[in-house]
Amino acid sequence: MVTAATMNSPLIGTPKLEIKDVGKIFKTKSGETTALEKTSFTINDGEFVTILGPSGCGKSTVLRIVAGLEEATSGQVLLDGEVINGPGPDRGMVFQSYTLFPWLNVKENITFGLKLNGVSQKEREDVARHYLQLIGLEGFENHYPIQLSGGMKQRVAIARALANDPKILLMDEPFGALDAQTRNIMQEVLLKAWEESKKTILFITHDVDESIFLADSVYVMSARPGRLKKKVPISIERPRGFSVKGTVEFAAYKEELLSLIREESLKSI
User: Fold this and answer.
1) What is the pLDDT of residues 160-176, one digit of tens each?
2) What whole-number distance in Å separates Cα of residue 161 and Cα of residue 219?
3) Rounded distance between C-alpha atoms, residue 66 and residue 77, angstroms
C-alpha cells in the first residue's frame, strides 16, 4: 500500500487504544451534568469497533476525548501505550458534517496534510492516486466539493484521513446525513478501505444495522450518564457484502442489540 510514512509499531502486548476509567462531567450554570461515568475498554490493533447507544448517552463524548478535543474529568486514554493529552496527527477524524476545504479540489483535499508535513509532490501524487482508486473517485481529482454529492464528499474525507497514515481512525456518525441507499454504499466503501489499510477504527453510530455490518465488536452504551453496558463481539465472516444483512445470523445480532438499546431508551424517557 502507498503511504506517506511508516507507522510506528505498537508495543508488544499493548492494545492499540486503552480507555481507563474515563469520565466526563460538564459544568453548567445550574450545577453539574455527568455525561459519562467511569468507562474502560480496549481496542486491539486493526480492530473495527462501533459504539452504539441512545441519543445523549455520551458516545460522541468518548470519541472527542480520544481525539483530544475534549478533556476527561477522570481517567486517561492511551494510544500505543502513550497518554493522550490533546489533538495529534496520530488520530484521523471523520465527522458527520462535510469538512472538506471548499477552495481545494479533491486531490488537494486528500493530500492537504501531506503537503503541510513537507511530503514531496511526487509522493503526494502517488498517495492521491492510490486513494482515489480505493474510494472509487478516479476522474474526479480536479472537482471541487461544491461539485460533489454528500457521499462523494465523505469518500474524500475518509481518503484524506487515511492518507495521513494515522494510528487510529475516529469516525463520528459520518454517514448520518446521507440517504439510506448512499449510506449502504458508503458502508461497503469504508469496509473496502479498512480491509486494504488494516487501520484501527473507532466508529460512533446510532444505527443498529450499520454497527453490526461494520464491526468486529459493538460496544453498547447505557442511557445518560453513559457507561459501557455490554460488549457484543460480531462473528459474521469477512469479507462482508450487502447480502449479509438478510441472513439469520445478522437478524439475531440485530434483535439482541435492539433489545439492549430499547432498555436504555426507555430509561431516558
Assistant:
1) 999 999 999 999 999 99
2) 23
3) 6
Residue identified by cell 494510544 is 79
Q: Looking at domain 43-90+168-269, what is its CATH homologous superfamily? A: P-loop containing nucleotide triphosphate hydrolases (3.40.50.300)
Domain extents in the chain: 43-90+168-269, 100-165
* CB of 164 closer than 8 Å to CB of 133: no
pLDDT digits (tens, 9 = 90+) for 168-201: 999 999 999 899 999 999 999 999 999 999 999 9
Q: Minimum mean pLDDT among 17-26, 101-110, 257-266: which range?
A: 257-266
Q: How far is CA 166 from CA 6, 67, 114, in A?
A: 10, 12, 12
- Which of 95, 84, 68 is closest to 161 using CA atoms? 95
Instruction: Round to whole Å and give the CA distance between 253 and 232.
Output: 9
How far apart CA 158 and CA 12 sit, in angstroms, is 28
Spatial distance between the Cα atoms of 12 and 46, rounded to a whole number of angstroms:
14
Rounded Cα–Cα distance for residues 59 and 61 (Å): 5
Name the grid cell of 251. Answer: 437478524
Cell readout for 122 is: 511526487
